[in-house]
Structure formats: C-alpha cells, structure tokens
Amino acid sequence: MSVFFDKIKVFSKLLLVVLFLGLSQASFAAESNDSTKAFNASEVILHHVLDDHIWHFFDGHYGTLYLPVIVYSAERGLESFSSHNFYDEHHNIVEYNGYKLDHNHIYLADSGKSVLDLSITKNVAMLFINATLMILILSAVARGYKKNAGKAPKGIQAFIEPIIVFVRDEVVKPNIGPKYEKYLPYLLTLFFFILFGNLLGLLPGAANLTGNIAVTAVLAIGTFVITNVSGNKGYWGHIFWTPGVPLPLRLVILPVEILGIITKPISLTIRLFVAITAGHIVLLSLICLAFVFGSAYVGIGSSLIVMFINLIELLVAGIQAYVFTLFSSLYIGMAVAEHAHDDHH
Amino acid sequence: MELLTPGSGLIIWQAIIFFPLVVLLYFLAWKPILASLKERETSITEALNTAEQARLEIATLKSDNEKLLKLAREERDKMLKDARDAVNRMKDEAAADAKKTADRIIEDARQAINIEKQAAMKDVRTQVAMFSLEVAEKLMKKNLSSDKAQKDLVDGYIKELKLN
C-alpha cells in the first residue's frame, strides 16, 4: 500500500510542477489579452471548458494546434480541411469555402444550414489520446501477467491491479451478483475511461473530455442499453406490473417506473458532466482571480488554493469514475437480479 | 447554452471510439488480466487448502505417532512387569525349593540324628547294663563272700516283704 502512496506522492508532485507551468501559461495568455481588450474571466473559463476546433496551448505563432475539420452535408457531401482556414492572420474568424464557423458550430455560409460536424475537435483528439493511453497502459498490464505468470505483480501491473481488483470485488461483484463476469469488461473499460479522462483533463492545456455532456451521455447510453437488453422477467415485471401493490396504485407506479428507466442514464450523464466541469470552473475561476485583480499577491494566494483544489480534483477524478461504475453496475444488477420475493406477496 | 448541448460530432466519435474500445480492451487486457487474476486466486486457494490438508495430515500423523508411542510404552511397561513378575516368581520358586531342600536335609539330618541317638542310647543302655552287672557281680562277689552277709541280705528281703 505504501508503494501506492509513494506513487500518488510522486504523481501529485509532478502535477504541482505541471500546474505551475500551467499558471505561467495562463498569466502569459492573460497579459497578451490585457493588451488588446479587458480581461473577461467567464469567456476564458468557458473557452477552456468547452469543445473547440483548435487546440490552444499558448498565444503566439506555435501555440495553437489547428485540428482537421470534417463536415458532411447533403448539399456538399463529405469534406475535410484544416481549421486554420477559418482564421486569418490576426486570429479573426473568416468564412472558408462556403462554410461559416460560429460559436464552434459550422454552418453553410449561403443557406445558414448547420452541417454534420465530424471534425477532430479538441475533445475528439483528447478522446484519441485517452483511448490510446488506455490501450498502451492496460495492454502493458496484461503483458505483465504473461511475463510474471504465477509471480507477484510488478511495475505498472502492481499499480493497476489493485484498481482492477477493487472494481471487480467492491463495485461490480456485490451489485450485479453471480452473473457479474459478463459485464465486467464493459464496466472496467468504463471505469478506466472515466478515470483516465478525468486525470488527463486536470493537466494544463488538456481538453475537458469527461466534463463534456456528449461524452458522458454516450457512456450513460451504453449502460442504459446494457441494462435494458439484459433486463429479465422480474425487472420488466416490476416496471409494468409492480407486484404486491394494489391495482390503482399500479397505474400510478407504471409511469413513474417508465420515467425511472429514462432518468437513470440522465442522472449518470449529468452527474459526471457537472462534477468534472464544475471542478474545472472552480480551478479556472481561482486562477482568473489573479487577473481580475491584476495582483501578484492574489495570484500567490489563489495558486495555493488552486493547489489544494487540484488535490481535491484528483480525489474527485477517482470518486466520479467509481460512482459512475457503481451506479452502472447497480442498474445492471437491478435488471439481472433474481426476484426471489415474488411469491410471498 | 453551449455547455449543455451535446455536439453531434463528439457523440458519434465517442460512440465510434468507446464501444470498439470495450471490445478491443476485452481481448487486449481484460480477458488475460481477469483470467490471470482468477488463476492466481484459485492457485492461492488451492495452496491454502493443501497447506490446511497437510496440517491436518501432520496432526493425524502426530496423533498416530503418539498413539504408537503410547502403545510401545505400554508394551514396554508390560514386558518389564512380566519380567519382574517372572523374576519374582523364579525367586520365590527358588526360595521355596531351597527351603524344601533345606527342610528335607534337616529332616533327614534329624532322622539320622534320632537313629544315631537311639542307637547310641541303646548302646549306652547296654553298656550301663553291662557296667551294672559287672558292678553287681563284683559287689556280690565281695559282699556275699561271708555267710553273715548272705544271711543279712536274705533278712533284708524278708523284712521288705513283711512290710508289704
């Protein structure tokens, strides 16, 4: 266990260093902003939290990564080009090739119709990075089992294994019951996707992947589909004809239960999205305080607070991954549970 | 608000990436990892069971050994007791034999002594009688050599007779 804490310590130190680097970047960005226009904290914060077609690391010529734009419309078909085309040399948004960029949405310039935007946005790029990291790290862990077959785990394997065992034994097994093994790969992927996404999102300059409602919605839909596909007779029986309840009440319960099917994924979606986005907003607001007041002393104070909030965010990253997985297994568990109490009503 | 409206592109990308990722990781990571974990757990459980069994076996062996030892000790005690008994018995027998022999010897001796004694007594008696006779003869020869002495003796006898 002490090894685990050592690793956490090293990690948090690393994070601190990165955080201060991030702060210096932020100050750099704010300074240049000050020269052109008044500092708008909410705009800066939203810009960091939202998705974008460019990946802005710092101001200057090389500070921005222009991501590819892929659009599809019935009129123009599938087209792709660099998002650099939407910006002129003064970083003002311009129309390109009949496409218009407005608040990160792409429209057809002539008709004003919105197009299907399949661009590799900041979050999509982050998604690729997240998935690649997961594949690299987890397959390294799997290789560890082949290499150290029958021996104690080593290295990254020793770091990840307790998490896997925790998810299996503390989250999935108790909530789903004897049929848990079928759902374990999905729930483990879910857990690590959210955990990695949360932790990566805390890095300065990183995109807010797990704090994006589209991402959390897809994850929740995954759980929703699995829950309802594996729902057994007892599960549907409880929803449509709740046993042990007087007939008139059943008619009241029926819509509530049907609503319950829908609210479960919605609550999953919103919980993760809000928790992560709120954390980012708090962090960025504290950093922005320095620029709002234009004082270095406020900067020192807010940096110290940011440091602690960052530690809390690390905790939240784990907790939210845990909670999402816990509730997913709970819902699946409810759907596959054998209702033994049906007879004694 | 833009924050709350999911971007359709990101939804599609997320679905395209996430669900195949589940499948990919199932083959790349979860299947081997979970199998190894399970294998390790079963091997640990088996090892523990084997250890427990070995412990039980050792305990039974130990109790068997103790039982054997106890039996051996009992047997030894019995043998010792038997030996002691045998010794005692032999001793007793020997003592009894010796006593019997001694008794017999004593008896024999006593009989021999008796016989010797009787023989001696007889001899003594004969000798005494002989001596008496010789003494009497000599006395008689000396005393009855005169007539007066003879007359006195006869008178003496007659007197004794009269008294009766």
Automatic annotation (TrEMBL), chain A:
GO terms assigned for molecular function: proton-transporting ATP synthase activity, rotational mechanism
Keywords per UniProt: ATP synthesis, Cell membrane, CF(0), Hydrogen ion transport, Ion transport, Membrane, Signal, Transmembrane, Transmembrane helix, Transport
Organism: Chryseotalea sanaruensis
Name the record gives this protein: ATP synthase subunit a
Coiled coil feature spans: none
Physiological role: Key component of the proton channel; it plays a direct role in the translocation of protons across the membrane.
Membrane topology (UniProt): Multi-pass membrane protein
Name of the gene: atpB
Compartment(s) where it occurs, according to its Swiss-Prot or TrEMBL record: Cell membrane; Membrane
Similarity field: Belongs to the ATPase A chain family.
Gene Ontology, cellular component aspect: plasma membrane; proton-transporting ATP synthase complex
Gene3D superfamilies on file: ATP synthase, F0 complex, subunit A (1.20.120.220)
Automatic annotation (TrEMBL), chain B:
Quaternary state and interactors: F-type ATPases have 2 components, F(1) - the catalytic core - and F(0) - the membrane proton channel. F(1) has five subunits: alpha(3), beta(3), gamma(1), delta(1), epsilon(1). F(0) has three main subunits: a(1), b(2) and c(10-14). The alpha and beta chains form an alternating ring which encloses part of the gamma chain. F(1) is attached to F(0) by a central stalk formed by the gamma and epsilon chains, while a peripheral stalk is formed by the delta and b chains. F-type ATPases have 2 components, F(1) - the catalytic core - and F(0) - the membrane proton channel. F(1) has five subunits: alpha(3), beta(3), gamma(1), delta(1), epsilon(1). F(0) has four main subunits: a(1), b(2) and c(10-14). The alpha and beta chains form an alternating ring which encloses part of the gamma chain. F(1) is attached to F(0) by a central stalk formed by the gamma and epsilon chains, while a peripheral stalk is formed by the delta and b chains.
Family the UniProt entry places it in: Belongs to the ATPase B chain family.
Compartments, record wording: Cell membrane; Endomembrane system
Name of protein: ATP synthase subunit b
Gene name per UniProt: atpF
Membrane topology term: Single-pass membrane protein
TM stretches of this protein: 12-30
Task of the protein: F(1)F(0) ATP synthase produces ATP from ADP in the presence of a proton or sodium gradient. F-type ATPases consist of two structural domains, F(1) containing the extramembraneous catalytic core and F(0) containing the membrane proton channel, linked together by a central stalk and a peripheral stalk. During catalysis, ATP synthesis in the catalytic domain of F(1) is coupled via a rotary mechanism of the central stalk subunits to proton translocation.
Protein's organism: Chryseotalea sanaruensis
Stored InterPro entries: ATP_synth_B-like_membr_sf, ATP_synth_b/b'su_bac/chlpt, ATP_synth_F0_bsu_bac, ATP_synthase_B_chain
Any one GO CC term of the record: endomembrane system
Pfam families for the chain: ATP-synt_B (PF00430)
